[in-house]
Amino acid sequence: MDPHNPIQTPNVSVLLKNLGSNDDPMRKMAAFKLQTLINDPSFAELFVNQGGLPKLRLLVLESSGNTLSYGLASFARLLDVDQGWEVIDTAVVEKVVELVVCQPLVNILRGAMAILVGIVSRPFNADRSPVPGERPQIGGFQALKPAIALYPQFLEMLVSRLSSADHALCANALQLINSLVRDAITNDNETEWPKFIKRIQDLGVIKA
Question: In whole angstroms, what is the distance from residue 46 CA to residue 6 CA?
């Protein structure tokens, strides 16, 4: 953003209003603009400070098609710069896992997997005592397990994405599998992580 050039400086208030609009084309255009603007750290900070996270969360939970794709991409980019964690909750994790299992559109799958990579890669300390009034920390493979229990096809579908003709999707799937394996070995107990590795191997990840 350029504070000295108001023509080039996006109006965050207008963007937020449009993200919450009931008009689908207006919301879609706002989501499209957001995925580019969010790459600017100063804009990302302004977006968060002006209450953009709840709107982005709703976009991920309730939108579809390209609007959902743009929302997922924006969310993934925020997590990359360690922003947005306060609205990552069980509902968001379940939704993103559901997308990996059920969604055929490649552009949506890329964003969904990028978010899961961010979550699984986030350091998680199970022994850390939560601060009173603080939202429980979301991170690590542990954060995905309740959602995977609801969608037991998750690992099978994830491995199948390694055979996709879309190279970016293959890379995202491989990165997510690596993150899951690394976290399982680091944080699961000595009887659990070998079972997970065997399950991944049985699904044909090495062959894929």
Answer: 15
The pTM of this model reads 0.86
The CA-based diameter of the chain, rounded to the nearest angstrom, is 60
Residues 58, 61, 67, 69: is their CA dihedral positive or negative? positive
Q: Tell me the mean pLDDT in the region 171-200.
A: 86
Chain position carrying tokens 């991170």: 139
At residue 128 the predicted structure's pLDDT band, cuts being 50, 70 and 90, is very low
- Residue 185, CB half-sphere, CA atoms under 13 Å: how many? 8
- State residue 129's pLDDT score: 41
Q: Are 53 and 19 in contact (CB under 8 A)?
A: no
Q: How far apart are CA 51 and CA 25, in angstroms?
A: 22
Determine which helix (DSSP H) or strand (DSSP E) holds 195, and give its type and residue range: helix 192-202
- The answer for 83, left when phi > 0, alpha when psi is -120 to 50, beta otherwise, is beta
Give the span between the Cα atoms of 145 and 112, in whole angstroms. Answer: 16
Tokens (6 digits) for 146:
């309740």
CB neighbourhood size of 186 (10 A): 12
Q: Is 74 exposed, middle or buried (0-12, 13-18, 19+ CB in 10 A)?
A: buried
